[in-house]
């Protein structure tokens, strides 16, 4: 049966690429994009689009009933850096939207939910390298606390009410198609824009801060794969560790410099350094690989090439045209 999908936060960094991929897979009319305001033109125009504030339960339920939605991808969230600036706003947005969707599933109004978690669920007391699926989790950021709490509720709703909720702990995601919005890993995208436009970049993390990262296409593939997997294969109902590569700002800089030899970098760590320091450097995602066959495809060299090619003026004209 073809699902009828609602994407909440469809104009955001992940949402916009996910919407296009899901429309290709299931047909434009079966993937309803929604966001608090209009954004990416292609997302808004290539299929049904609704302005929706997902903290408003009645408005959310209306959209779900009107389109006879069966699956919801809840991609709206306030990320780590912005949530540190607006703690209560971050907490309220991240938790209220999740509860609204979980309760609609509990009441039988939707069949399946995707909800993204993050490496931010881990904290300074978590083992830093090859962080296991099950380990100490004492997140030190508002965003991390909201994601860890969300994971507990997802597992609870699954066990107590049978809600089919599936989740991934995304690392930092890189894409040339969309701009990041308020995260700590955003430097890894900013650096490409600056390298191409100004040939110099001032990084807000220190040169040796190693963080788990992934090319967006891998993240979208993982999302679609976990949502398509047989329910019996989804053994973790909090959220799965998900990994591809890890690199430091200096390693990324050197990789870009191979293509743009005149590129220079300086380091001026700000409040985001403490956030990054509290997160793992690398993640053990063997459980996702075993349970539902996750595999990543892109390494640092490939990502660097794709990002530079994608952001070059020629490609931007092609993309807009
Ligand atoms: C952030 O930096 O806040 C996000 C994340 C790792 O969840 N990219």
Instruction: Please write the string of helix (H) and strand (E) elements.
Output: EHEHEHEHHEEHEEEHEEHEEHEHHHH
Strand content: 5-15%
Report the major sheet.
6 strands, parallel
Mean pLDDT: 96
SS element count, helices: 13
Count of all domains: 2
User: CATH homologous superfamily of the largest domain, by name?
Assistant: NAD(P)-binding Rossmann-like Domain
CATH topology of the largest domain: Rossmann fold
Give the neighbour order of strands across the main sheet. 3-2-1-4-5-7
Description:
Helix 1 crosses helix 8, helix 5 packs parallel to helix 6 and helix 7 packs parallel to helix 9. This protein is α/β, with parallel strands linked by helices and 321 residues long. The strands form 4 sheets. The chain has a 6-stranded parallel sheet, sandwiched between helices. A 3-stranded parallel sheet has the order 6-8-12. Strand 1, helix 1 and strand 2 form a beta-alpha-beta unit. It has 2 domains: 194 residues, 3-Layer(aba) Sandwich (Rossmann fold), CATH 3.40.50.720; 118 residues, Rossmann fold (3-Layer(aba) Sandwich). The model has no long low-confidence stretch (mean pLDDT 96).
In short:
The protein is an alpha/beta fold and about 325 residues long.
Q: Key features?
A:
321 residues; alpha/beta; Rossmann fold; 2 domains; 6-stranded parallel sheet; 14 strands; binds 2-amino-3-ketobutyric acid
Which helices and strands, and how do they pair?
Elements: E1 5-8, H1 13-26, E2 31-35, H2 41-45, E3 49-51, H3 57-67, E4 71-74, H4 80-85, H5 87-106, E5 112-114, E6 117-118, H6 142-161, E7 164-166, E8 168-170, E9 172-174, H7 187-197, E10 200-203, E11 211-215, H8 216-228, E12 240-241, E13 245-247, H9 249-257, E14 264-267, H10 272-277, H11 286-292, H12 300-311, H13 313-320
Parallel strand pairs: 1-2, 1-4, 2-3, 4-5, 5-7, 6-8, 8-12, 9-11, 10-14
Antiparallel strand pairs: 11-13
Bound molecules: 2-amino-3-ketobutyric acid.
């Amino acid at each position: 049966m073809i699902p009828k999908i609602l994407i909440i936060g469809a104009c955001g960094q992940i949402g916009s690429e996910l919407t296009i991929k899901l429309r290709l897979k299931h047909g434009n009319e079966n993937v309803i994009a929604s966001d608090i305001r209009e954004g990416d033109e292609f997302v808004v125009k290539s299929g049904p689009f609704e302005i929706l504030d997902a903290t408003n339960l009645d408005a959310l339920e209306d959209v779900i009933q009107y389109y006879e939605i069966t699956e919801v991808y809840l991609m709206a969230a306030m990320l780590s850096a912005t949530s540190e600036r607006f703690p209560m706003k971050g907490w309220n947005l991240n938790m209220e939207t999740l509860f609204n969707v979980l309760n609609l599933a509990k009441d039988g109004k939707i069949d399946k939910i995707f909800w993204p978690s993050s490496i931010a669920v881990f904290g300074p007391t978590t083992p830093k390298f090859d962080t296991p699926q099950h380990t100490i989790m004492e997140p030190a950021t508002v965003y991390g606390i909201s994601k860890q709490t969300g994971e507990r509720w997802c597992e609870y709703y699954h066990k107590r009410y049978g809600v089919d909720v599936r989740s991934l702990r995304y690392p930092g995601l890189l894409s040339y198609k969309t701009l990041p919005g308020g995260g700590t890993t955003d430097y890894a995208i900013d650096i490409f824009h600056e390298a191409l436009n100004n040939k110099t970049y001032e990084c807000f993390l220190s040169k040796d801060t190693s963080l788990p990262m992934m090319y967006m296409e891998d993240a979208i593939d993982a999302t679609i794969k976990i949502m398509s997997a047989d329910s019996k294969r989804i053994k973790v109902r909090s959220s799965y560790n998900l990994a591809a590569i890890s690199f430091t700002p200096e390693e990324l800089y050197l990789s870009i410099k191979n293509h743009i030899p005149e590129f220079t970098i300086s380091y001026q760590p700000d409040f985001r350094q403490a956030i990054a320091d509290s997160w793992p450097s690398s993640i053990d995602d063997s459980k996702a690989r075993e349970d539902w066959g996750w595999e990543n495809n892109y390494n640092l060299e490939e990502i660097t090439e794709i990002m530079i090619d994608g952001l070059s003026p020629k490609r931007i004209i092609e993309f807009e045209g």
